[in-house]
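// run 5 | inverse folding | seed 20
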């Protein structure tokens, strides 16, 4: 969903822990997804954080966090006019056993690009100029 991010542990060779920074622009969202075995902790560094977990939406304040269990659907989004900066940590980082094929339906059982009701009527990702595309189909 074109969310700017940085992977902090990619170069460490960590087999268990993942850590990323996600900078969500105003009126944006990451994909609606779940994990098979990974637990994640979402910690807000800047702005106001919004996350839906299963069917409930949470508002997270600066320096607060939320833990999300495997199999719970999750989507971080920003329905404000200011950026939000998240630190997301999860373990295990690699959920696909060696030799197994990636089955995306386990992670995305529904449309991963669906937006939460708080962003209804907006299109994300935006076009290359940072504006909503006039072509609804993408």
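// decoded
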């Amino acid at each position: 969903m074109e969310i700017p991010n940085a992977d902090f542990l990619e170069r460490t060779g960590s087999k268990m822990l993942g850590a990323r920074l996600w900078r969500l622009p105003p009126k944006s969202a990451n994909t609606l997804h779940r994990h098979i075995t990974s637990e994640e902790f979402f910690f807000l560094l800047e702005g106001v954080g919004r996350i839906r977990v299963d069917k409930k939406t949470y508002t997270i304040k600066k320096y607060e966090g939320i833990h999300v269990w495997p199999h719970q659907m999750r989507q971080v989004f920003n329905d404000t006019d200011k950026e939000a900066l998240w630190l997301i940590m999860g373990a295990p980082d690699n959920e696909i056993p060696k030799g197994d094929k990636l089955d995306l339906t386990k992670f995305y059982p529904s449309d991963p690009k669906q937006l939460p009701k708080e962003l209804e009527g907006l299109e994300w990702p935006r076009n290359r100029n940072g504006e909503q595309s006039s072509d609804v189909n993408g």
